[in-house]
Amino acid sequence: MTSAQNAPAGKKKGRYFACEIDAWAVDSKTVNRFLEKVIRGDPDQCWSWSGYVDNRGYGSFSFNCSRTAAHRFAFFVEHGYLPKHVLHRCNNKTCTNPAHLAPGDARLNVVHAIHDGLVRKRKLCADDVIEIRALKAAGAATKAIASRFGVHKTLIGKIIAGTRWWHVGTDILDGILMRPPQAIAA
Predict the structure, then answer these.
(1) Other C-beta atoms lying within 10 Å of the C-beta of residue 4
(2) What gap in Å lies between CA 74 and CA 53, rounded to an integer?
(3) 78 CB contacts (<8 Å, ≥6 apart)?
(4) Calpha distance 150→144 (Å, rounded)
(5) What is the pLDDT of residues 154-186, one digit of tens each?
(6) Could you tell me the CA-to-CA distances from 42 to 45, 99, 173 in Å, in that order?
(7) Phi, psi of 76 (to 5 degrees)
(8) Which residue, 96, 90, 46, 89, is CA-closest to 70?
(9) Which pLDDT belongs to residue 162?
(10) Cα dihedral angle (8, 11, 15, 19), rounded to 10 degrees?
């Protein structure tokens, strides 16, 4: 039997899921083993993780034949529960200081990343998308539009089809599909 077959239900090798940490399975020995890998500083400083760091840069902690992100385990130890998402307020992926961790959701995580400049800058803005749709409606070739904006023609096609940037200028052109993907499926 391979290690992937031995993995707990709902887990895939090398990935973290919003699995619940069983409070009964986390004993003082496990917590002490976790804390041995935390390099503590002042309460307002990041507490670095000295254990295993995965290929995405997050600390990883193994217990009871499963693996979880070190910052998630730190949050659980401090607060006694585990939300679906645990966000780093400090943007340090190896930080395990509970004062730097907060419950959240995927949307809040993206907003935080954008606010802190962690998301790469887009090549297009909303005004570009409106211009792209106007050019296409005027008969411009998809390849020419793509060349003008420095993007691939596939992206231009998706913008015109409404599967990318669907939320921008949804009423500017008749005859071009401009609804969100959810509305298309319904």
Answers:
(1) 10
(2) 15
(3) 98, 101
(4) 10
(5) 999 999 998 888 777 755 444 444 444 444 444
(6) 5, 11, 57
(7) -60, -45
(8) 96
(9) 85
(10) -90
Question: Cα separation of 96 and 85, whole Å?
Answer: 14
Q: Would you say 133 and 172 are in contact if contact means Cβ atoms under 8 Å apart?
A: yes
> Do 78 and 98 form a contact (C-beta atoms < 8 A)?
yes
Instruction: Measure the CA–CA gap between 47 and 34, rounded to whole angstroms.
Output: 12
3 phi and psi, to 5 degrees? -65, -30
Residue 7, token pair as written in the block: 């993995």
The tens digit of pLDDT for each residue in 45-61 reads 999 999 999 998 999 99
Q: Dig out the tokens for 70 from the structure.
A: 């070190």
For residue 134, the surrounding DSSP H or E stretch is helix 126-137
CA distances from 67 to 43, 51, 116 (A): 26, 12, 28
